[in-house]
Amino acid sequence: MAMSERDRAILDFERSWWQEDGLKEDAIRLRFTLSATRYYQIVHELLDEPEAMVYDPLVVRRLRRDRDRRRKARFEGRSAGGPQVR
């Protein structure tokens, strides 16, 4: 499956969204006319596409690491973002 222009734009956005003013969810709505939920569904689908890895390997690897960390935290029943209590 070839990546669409929207798919490339999403990966480009993920590379630099924090440089924009305002909330990420607002930027998603304005730029892609998608809800945040649908946007993240598309992002997670893209992470499994070989074409996405070819297009932007650094972003895809970073997002995969984040996704894997969140999955592991859910499985282990702890927060994915905060400090770990031992």
List the helices and strands and how they pair.
Elements: H1 5-16, H2 24-32, H3 36-46, H4 50-55, H5 57-76
Task: Tell me what you see in this structure.
By secondary structure, this protein is mainly α. It has one domain. 67% of the residues lie in helices and 0% in strands. It has helices at 5-16, 24-32, 36-46, 50-55, 57-76. The longest helix has 20 residues, at 57-76. It starts with a helix and ends in a 10-residue tail after the last helix. The mean pLDDT is 88.
Features:
5 helices; single chain; globular; mainly alpha; 67% helix; 86 residues
Helical amount: 55-70%
> How many whole angstroms does the radius of gyration measure?
14 Å
Q: What's the shape?
A: globular
N-C termini distance: 45 Å
Total of DSSP H or I helical runs spanning 4+ residues? 5
Write the element-wise H/E pattern from the N-terminal end onward: HHHHH
Mean pLDDT figure: 88
Q: Low-confidence runs (pLDDT<50, min 5 residues)?
A: none
Brief write-up:
The chain is 67% helix and 0% strand.
